[in-house]
Glucosamine-6-phosphate deaminase (Bifidobacterium favimelis), 243 residues
Amino acid sequence: MTEIIIVKSQEEAGRIYADRTAQLIKDKPACVLGLATGSSPLAAYQALAAKVKEEGIDVSQVRGFALDEYAGLDPNHPQSYRSTINRTVVEPLGLDPAKVRVPNGNLDTIKDAGHEYDQAIEDAGGVDLQILGIGTDGHIGFNEPGSSLASGTRIKTLTEQTRIDNARFFDGDINKVPTHCITQGIGTILKAHQLVLLAFGAGKAEAVAESVEGGISSFCPASALQLHPHATVIVDEAAASRL
Ligand code: GLP
């Protein structure tokens, strides 16, 4: 069952995530956090970083797995998801960078990277709490519409809509946005013990309504959350406006 929480602001959503995650870290110091890029989780990471500092929570054993990475983009590129996760999560929270993995988008090894990544998640005991954003077309991670709901981590082609949406991170130039990515599959994401999806703004309203109230379909990847026993969707009023 999906729990829906409507909040007044991203900060309020961030505090809900921070409270849950801080409790998880206290209960299980070597817990596994599922991490996402995009603007939606930023307030949540900030709230968690503030709480970790205020309460002096020991995060030295916390492990992390990111959802996805662009294919063929240098990991040191400022817009690679490796750089983004370092900048937005690892550094502010003070996590051990060696314990936080991001899928490897290197084109020479990408063919086997997905299977290895899923194995590494399994070896770590699975993701305890996965944070998610949602694309305007309902994608989670980079699982675009049409992705199998049972999929594992693999290479995918980005849709034109996603490349248009993400061009803002590449000088507004769609030609600079990579055409492919490696992403955890929907099946991988569903294995996490707990999911928290964050969506803000009217641009997400349709995708949110389709995900929560529409039928479960690979044409709206986020609708797979309906299959998960412990999923929470936290939205502001604008993103909830079509519910
Ligand atoms: C990218 C990421 C997704 C993210 C989406 C939405 O496509 N791969 O994980 O959910 O962007 O981003 P934003 O939160 O900035 O709207």
The chain has seven helices and ten strands. The mean pLDDT is 97. The helical segments are 10-27, 42-55, 81-93, 110-123, 160-166, 186-190, 205-213. The radius of gyration is 17 Å.
